[in-house]
Design goal:
The protein is 28% helix and 33% strand. The chain has 224 residues and is of the alpha/beta class. Helix 2 links the parallel strand 5 and strand 6. Helix 1 runs parallel beside helix 2.
């Protein structure tokens, strides 16, 4: 077995330690012994952007907010799927994640952060949701899903007040898309209580149809 190599470490604001590891061509971000992100499992993050772009259609000058840079899979899929005149803001809470993207993780990220459509918001995605004019799509790939497992403060994104703020920040006909490592029926009911049209999609973690099943929610705001 190829030994793992530690490339960097930091502490998540309001959460625990994070370590960047490499084993051969594979990269992982760990919290202790728990894998938060792994470069072998990208399909569900990519589908978050791919399905979102398909649902939004050819809306001109679409404004997109991605919550969480991570290993960059959602962003790179968004750059492929959204139009050339779109604006994509990526909110990342942990500065080292952005530093790693331009450093040891550059083989994964390529030049995606230098795309003229991309803007980095260094801070909590909740501030990005309320600080700017409305977005046509908000894509949340934060924590392990709507239970705030690794950073309890993330719960406020998914409670009733957080969902109301996200709905207010979405244009009519736009949508909120959420990634989760698992289904959550209580959260599905809470999301439907916002009055948005909710669709739940199950996708595999890997593009070859293998790996764990992950859950995506797409909540569309009425109008348009």
């Amino acid at each position: 077995m190829i030994p793992g190599q530690k490339l960097g470490e930091t502490t998540m604001p309001g959460g625990g330690p994070m370590t960047l590891m490499q084993r051969g061509t594979e990269f992982s971000v760990m919290s202790g012994t728990i894998t938060l992100m792994n470069s072998r499992m990208s399909n569900s993050e990519e589908q978050l952007a791919t399905i979102s772009a398909s649902r939004l259609g050819s809306r001109p000058g679409a404004r997109i907010l991605i919550g969480g840079l991570g290993l960059g899979f959602t962003l790179r899929a968004a750059l492929k799927c959204f139009a050339a005149d779109s604006e994509i803001t990526v909110a990342e809470l942990v500065p080292e994640i952005v530093e790693w993207a331009r450093g040891p993780l550059q083989p994964l990220h390529g030049d995606s952060l230098d795309d003229p459509r991309v803007r980095i918001h260094l801070g909590d995605v909740s501030t990005a949701i309320t600080a700017a004019k409305p977005f046509d799509a908000i894509l949340l790939d934060v924590d392990n899903g709507p239970d705030g497992l690794f950073r309890p403060a993330n719960d406020r994104l998914y409670n009733a007040a957080g969902l109301a703020a996200a709905k207010a920040a979405v244009t009519p006909g736009g949508h909120l898309a959420i990634w989760s490592s698992h289904p959550d029926e209580r959260f599905t009911r809470r999301l439907r209580q916002t009055g948005m049209q909710v669709d739940q999609v199950t996708v595999r973690a890997r593009s070859n149809g293998k790996g764990d099943r992950h859950t995506l929610w797409f909540a569309t705001k009425p109008g348009h």
